[in-house]
Protein: Large ribosomal subunit protein bL21
Amino acid sequence: MTFAVIKTGGKQYKVAEGDVLSIEKIEHKDEKIVFDQVLLTSDGKETKVGKPLVSGAKVEARVLEDGKGKKKMVFRYKSKTRQRKKKGHRQPYTKVQIVKILS
Structure:
């Protein structure tokens, strides 16, 4: 089984071909994205570990959609002073499907 560990949006993801994952929103012009920050690749026989990145390794992905996550409520409160503040937040994301891992 071929898999890789990529870094995007300050997070690391273990991905294999065909995986669908939601990542932090990234700006894109096309339907295809190439992740070049690959930390580890493995094809079942050989594992390459980067120091910190694997040289020449890339992961190609296809953009499925851009959207917003579920709403999280934030409530700040101070007792005895009638101070309260309520607001919501929806984190933007980009949903991608991994097409090919090039190691």
Summary: The mean pLDDT is 95. Residues 7 and 37 are 6 Å apart (CA to CA). The first strand starts at residue 3 and ends at 8. The chain is about 0% helix and 65% strand.
